[in-house]
Amino acid sequence: MKNCLVAQSGGPTVAINASLAGVIQGAIDSKQFDKIYGSLNGVQGLLNGRLMDLSQKFEDTPMFIELLKKSPSMYLGSCRYQLPDYSEDDAPYAYIFNKFEQYDIDAFFYIGGNDSMDTVDKLSTYAKAIDRDIKIIGIPKTIDNDLCITDHTPGYGSAAKYVASTLLEIGHDTSIYPINSVTIVEIMGRDAGWLTGASVLARNKYNFAPHLIYLPEVAFDEKQFIKDVRTAMDRYNNVVIAVSEGIKDAKGQYISATSAVEDTFGHSQLSGTGKCLEYIIKQNIQVKVRSVEINILQRCAAHMSSITDIGEAFRLGRHAVEVALQGKTAVMVTAIRKSNSPYSVDMGDTDVKNVAGLVKHVPREWINDVGNDVTQEFIDYVYPLILGEPVVKYQRGIPDYLDISHLFPNKIGE
């Protein structure tokens, strides 16, 4: 029998380890692989020769799969490494495929977001060019929920649950004083507003926060924003605003972009959108105002995860193994929604070229005409994804997750 290899890449989520668990369980149950290897820190693990035997870990650690499913972040670590065009520099490709041959790898599973699907696409293209029969499969993850074709991405449901819960708690926090105030909550989302839109789920029969929601899909207009805030203050003492970090003006410019700072994939590093809006309000409205940046907090909050999210992430991992055993390659596995009520999805797959380098935006019709709120269609879409609470093991009063000291450069005590 041959072996398989799995790696993780991009930003962490609550559910990405559940997809890893699905790959491991699927490979073991298939009885078609002798060993299951994990590459530490994505494709860089292959380039640096850092592989671990996950088959042995499964055998040596009781309840390994269950613990893995409920542990956040990335058990195998991550990277932000962009492969060059192989026609210009094939050295890293040659090295990676030599490692595949050395470890007798028949299938490679890469769990990640948009940039990771770019890696799947490039490796698949190179494999075809050199006539290597290795199945290369992408498994989606991202809290941003911006991958095309798939209905939603693992990690989004849990992050949406965290955002909605946090906005509800901020609503409670701001309501206790009988004075006027504005609280701006900046939420991750560079080019798509899925995560910010999920803040709408904080609303209930007594809480109307967030009172205003701004997504990147609609051009930000400063004059309209000031008008929106004034109107909201006429109705509510304490106004809470949810805003995506990536809102842009009518010219398509991020209002908070630092153009001189970009990541390895050329994405502008965004910071300070909340502060920008705070300054606008201070200059135009005499009211107490503050901004809060949720930033990375929702990415690893396994204590507030969605069991729907965890379960689907695991299913997608298992499905990726099935797809590889069918002989498919250069594809990303997908979740296709069949129904909202009762909620159900089917597992599928799509050519990775339909995903890599593309962004799925919130449909404009799911945002109100003025551009400061989302519609019932958005609520119906996101609500099923946050449901259910897995049982998280606690020790000394805090969550007890899997040990990840194998990722540390120098282990404590050595």
Automatic annotation (TrEMBL):
User: What the protein does?
Assistant: Catalyzes the phosphorylation of D-fructose 6-phosphate, the first committing step of glycolysis. Uses inorganic phosphate (PPi) as phosphoryl donor instead of ATP like common ATP-dependent phosphofructokinases (ATP-PFKs), which renders the reaction reversible, and can thus function both in glycolysis and gluconeogenesis. Consistently, PPi-PFK can replace the enzymes of both the forward (ATP-PFK) and reverse (fructose-bisphosphatase (FBPase)) reactions.
* Active-site residues annotated for this sequence: D144 (proton acceptor)
Instruction: Tell me what this protein is called.
Output: Pyrophosphate--fructose 6-phosphate 1-phosphotransferase
Q: Which InterPro entries match?
A: ATP_PFK, PFKA, Phosphofructokinase_dom, PKF_sf, PPi-PFK
- Source organism of this protein record: Eubacterium segne
Its organism's taxonomic lineage begins at: Bacteria, Bacillati, Bacillota, Clostridia, Eubacteriales
Catalytic activities: beta-D-fructose 6-phosphate + diphosphate = beta-D-fructose 1,6-bisphosphate + phosphate + H(+)
Q: Which family does it belong to?
A: Belongs to the phosphofructokinase type A (PFKA) family. PPi-dependent PFK group II subfamily. Clade 'B2' sub-subfamily.
NCBIfam families on file: PRK14072.1 (NF010675)
Keyword presence, Transmembrane helix:
no
Q: Which UniProt keywords apply?
A: Cytoplasm, Glycolysis, Kinase, Magnesium, Metal-binding, Transferase
